Every structure is written in C-alpha cells, then in structure tokens.
C-alpha cells in the first residue's frame, strides 16, 4: 500500500473527463466515429499481416521466422499500451493519439519498404508501439465521454470494430498480396491514418490544465525489459535456446530481476506507470486474467489458421482471408449483443462464463481438422471461436473501467490491452515454438533435401510431387493440431478466471470520485474493490 510520501496527490482537474466540454451529442458522435476509425487503423495493422505471412517469409526468409513478424508487433504494442495510457491520464488523450498515429505510420512505411527480415521486424516494432497506444487511448476516450451504461454499449461497438478489422485485415492482406504485392499491406494504412489524424485534431478537445507531472521513467523502462524478456523466453526457450543454456538462464534471471525492480520502482514512484494498488481490485485482476488467456488463444488461432488453409487445404491467400470472416461474424455479433445486454440489464458476469466454454469447445474441434475436413466444418468452428472471444473483450473493459479510480482510467483501460497483448505475444511465441518443433519432427524428415526447418516454405511444399505432397501435408497438419489443444487449455483457465469477477452496478461510475474526496493521498491509494 502506498503512503502519502510515495504518491503525489492528483491534480484538481485530473479526475474530470477532458472531453466534458463536448455537450453537443452530434459532435460527440463525430468523436466516437473518429475513435472507431483510430481503433480500426491500429487493429488492422496487426491482422492484415496474417494471410501475407507465408509470402513474406518466402520472400525474406524461412517459414520458421513467421512468429517474429507477429511477435514484434504484439510485443511493442504490449509495451506501448500502459505507457500511452499513463501519458493520456497525465497530458490528455488528444496529444497522445496524435503522436501514436505518427509513430504507427512511420513504422508501417519502414515495414513496407523492408528489403530483409531485420528491417521488417524493426518496422513492425515501431508500428506496434503506435498501434498499442492507439487502441488503449481510443477506448479510454469512450470512458471519458459516456456514463457506464452507455459506455457498455459503446465498448461492445468498439469490440465489434476490432472484430471487423481482425478479419477484414487478413482479407485485404490476401487481396493485396495477390494483386500488388505484400509491401502494400503496410502502405494501405497511410491514408486512413492521415484521415484519423485530421478528424481527431478537429474534434477532440485538448486538456486545458497546466499541471506538472513526473513521468515514471524507471518504471517504464523496467516494464519494457520485463515484457520483452518474458516474450523472448517464450519464443526462444526449448527451440532456439536450450532451457539450461547460459543465454536462456540469463533471460530467465532478467525476468525475475526486472519484475522485482519494477515492483520496487512502482511502490516508490510519485506517478507510477502501473499503480500497484490496482492489483488489489478484484475486477482488475480477474478481468485481466481473462484478457491474458484469451489473448493467447485468439492471436494464436488468427496467426496460424490462414497457414493451415493455404498449405493443408490449398486455399489461395485472398480466399483464406474470406474464411476468417467466420470469426468476425461470431466476434462482432456477440460483442454487440454483450454490449446491449450490459446496457439493458446492468449485468455482465455470466457472459464470459459462458463464452469461454464455447471457445474451449471450438478450439478442441479445430484440433481435429485435417486434409479431409470439409471447409464448411472449419468455417463453423471458426465462427464459434469468434462467439467465444466476443463477449470477453467488451465485458473486460467495462468491468475494469467501473472499478478503477478515474485518475487511473487510462492506465486501467491500457491494462486490458496490455494483458491481452501479453497473452498474444507469449501465446504466439509458444504456438510458434510448438509449430517449429512439429516442422522439425513431422515435416523435415520427409524432405531430405532440406537441411533445416527454416528452409521449409509454402512454395516448396506446393512444388512437391503428389504422393510426397500428401504425406507432407498430413505431417504439416500434425504439426499444427497441438496448437489448438493448447488454446483450448487457455480457454478453460479463462473460464476459471471469469468466475472471480464481481458484478458491480453499471449505474455507478469509477470508484475514485466517490472515495477521493475523503482521501488526501489518493494519487495511487486504491481501496480494495469487491
């Protein structure tokens, strides 16, 4: 627990929504549209790569590099999210959104111009910093503008936008790969980014207060080190590096030391980037537990299903994106439904209780598909994957926003994205390690001309004579199936975490405005919420 000497009092105006000066409902709708466009831009930056990955790695490197293209973006997004959320709390949402759009576009340009894999990964890292910032600050703007009940419906809508981009991204990516080349999957976001920047600049209000703040630089750096080393352990452990090798032991020690240092730094910081007392709030912990585990299942599935369709079922890149619409339909439909249920009933706990079980069953069904599985059955399974994910996204945000103090609204919102993306980063890395192991043990022995699993490409598999091609495709299926079993296990754990949610009335706002009046040192002092 923080003490008065460890935390600075919040600014008098910091608890007031910076967009409170927008009484005009029409103007507020314009802001919401701009926020939705910004969220669409950021989430498309991740998903548009999915169907293009086989072509990218065939052009710039081996198939085993595929997870680095995804992980680089997810890791940078994970790191950028809490920092951007804190900066939004301190200096206002508008300036943070403007800077994030600029960073996102620069990263996309570098990735699009990449001549080799390292340059592409650098571009994805920069793009990820911007994308993660855009997602969390956009969702925090909603909490600034709307009361809890309306906020529930809006968050359901934004989760639907996320779902649309999650699947339209691969669809657009596949089309661009087949028409103008994979480089354009990064360039295509530039005009949308410029439009979002222009609309936000004209509609979103800047913060008027001139209060000085003290950024928690040490905490931010330690958080970067902690998240980066965690993802590297998951990515390299057991595949590139042996678990008992010296480099891996150094990485594991880095995780432990960074975690200890981060906890100590946050306990002493005047304005911590992630206030530790938030972890005493039940809904904060439970909702983010769900976010972490759902992120593992969601990003792992989205990253590898297009490859399964292209390699095992012989589906073209653009067509494989079409099948991802099934996930979009389930995710969007249930996101909107969950938002409306929360708005009209004020209840939400039962939604993730049910949806996580649906997700588990859908992933178990995906683990049984193979070359003979009809495409309609795969499509139906993907639809139920979306059904299982949809409610968890909007419910998680609302549960957190109605439980955390308003002065930490940006950080609280950012935490949902941070934990989901951390799960996505670690999950994709784990899935990639399992897949690479499967390539080495199942596929490589059938291809004596291949000296290393990284040399296996989609074009190589497609060029094989029919008899060998059938064997390799079956082995490829065996390499992919364990991924979905692991995802189903994550969904079961997410169900257990969702049982710990405490249903708070949605007529109440964030807890801090009620408690802060009688608490002098409320900068990071948060009473446990049950």
UniProtKB/TrEMBL annotation:
Gene Ontology cellular component terms for the protein in this record: plasma membrane
Keyword Magnesium among record annotations: no
Keywords: Cell membrane, Membrane, Transmembrane, Transmembrane helix, Transport
Region (Disordered): 510-530
Domain Major facilitator superfamily (MFS) profile: 31-506
Cellular location(s): Cell membrane
TM spans (from-to): 30-53, 65-83, 95-115, 121-146, 158-178, 184-204, 216-239, 245-263, 284-309, 321-338, 350-369, 375-400, 421-440, 483-501
Its membrane topology: Multi-pass membrane protein
Pfam family, any one: MFS_1
Keyword Cytoplasm: no
GO terms, molecular function: transmembrane transporter activity
Protein name: Drug resistance transporter, EmrB/QacA subfamily
Organism: Pseudooceanicola antarcticus
């Amino acid at each position: 627990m923080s003490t008065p000497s460890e935390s600075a009092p919040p600014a008098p105006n910091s608890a007031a929504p910076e967009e409170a000066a927008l009484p005009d409902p029409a103007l507020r709708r314009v802001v919401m549209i701009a926020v939705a466009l910004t969220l669409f831009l950021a989430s498309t930056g991740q998903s548009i790569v999915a169907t293009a990955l086989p072509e990218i790695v065939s052009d710039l490197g081996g198939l085993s590099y595929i997870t680095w293209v995804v992980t680089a973006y997810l890791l940078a997004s994970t790191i950028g999210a809490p920092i951007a959320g804190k900066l939004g709390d301190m200096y206002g949402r508008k300036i943070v959104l403007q800077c994030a759009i600029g960073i996102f576009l620069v990263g996309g340009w570098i990735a699009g111009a990449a001549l080799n894999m390292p340059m592409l990964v650098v571009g994805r890292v920069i793009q990820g910093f911007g994308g993660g910032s855009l997602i969390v600050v956009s969702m925090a703007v909603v909490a600034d503008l709307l009361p809890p009940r309306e906020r529930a419906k809006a968050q359901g809508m934004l989760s639907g936008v996320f779902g649309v981009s999650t699947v339209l991204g691969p669809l657009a990516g596949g089309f661009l790969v087949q028409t103008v080349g994979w480089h354009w999957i990064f360039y295509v976001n530039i005009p949308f980014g410029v439009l979002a920047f222009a609309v936000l600049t004209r509609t979103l209000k800047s913060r008027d207060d001139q209060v000085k703040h003290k950024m928690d630089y040490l905490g931010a750096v330690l958080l970067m080190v902690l998240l980066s080393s965690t993802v590297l352990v998951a990515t390299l452990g057991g595949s590139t590096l042996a678990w008992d090798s010296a480099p891996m032991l150094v990485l594991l020690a880095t995780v432990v030391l960074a975690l200890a240092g981060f906890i100590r730094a946050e306990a002493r910081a005047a304005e911590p980037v992630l206030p530790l007392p938030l972890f005493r709030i039940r809904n904060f912990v439970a909702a983010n537990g769900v976010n972490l585990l759902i992120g593992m299942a969601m990003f792992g599935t989205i990253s590898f299903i297009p490859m399964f369709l292209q390699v095992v079922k012989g589906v073209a890149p653009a067509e494989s994106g079409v099948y991802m619409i099934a996930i979009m339909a389930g995710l969007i439909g249930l996101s909107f439904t969950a938002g409306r249920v929360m708005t009209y009933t004020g209840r939400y706990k039962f939604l993730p209780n049910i949806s996580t079980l649906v997700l588990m069953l859908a992933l178990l069904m995906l683990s049984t598909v193979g070359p003979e599985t009809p495409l309609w059955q795969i499509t139906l399974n993907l639809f139920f994957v979306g059904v299982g994910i949809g409610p968890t996204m909007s419910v998680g945000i609302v549960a957190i926003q109605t439980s955390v103090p308003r002065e930490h609204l940006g950080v609280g919102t950012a935490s949902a994205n941070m934990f989901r993306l951390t799960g996505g980063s670690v999950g994709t890395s784990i899935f990639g390690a399992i897949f690479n192991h499967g390539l080495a043990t199942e596929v490589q022995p059938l291809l004596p001309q291949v000296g290393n699993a990284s040399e296996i490409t989609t074009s190589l598999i497609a060029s094989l004579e029919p008899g060998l091609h059938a064997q390799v495709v079956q082995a490829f299926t065996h390499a992919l199936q364990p991924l979905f079993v692991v995802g189903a296990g994550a969904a079961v754990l997410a169900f257990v975490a969702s049982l710990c949610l405490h249903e708070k009335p949605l007529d109440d706002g964030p807890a801090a405005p009620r408690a802060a009046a009688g608490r002098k040192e409320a900068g990071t002092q948060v009473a446990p919420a049950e």
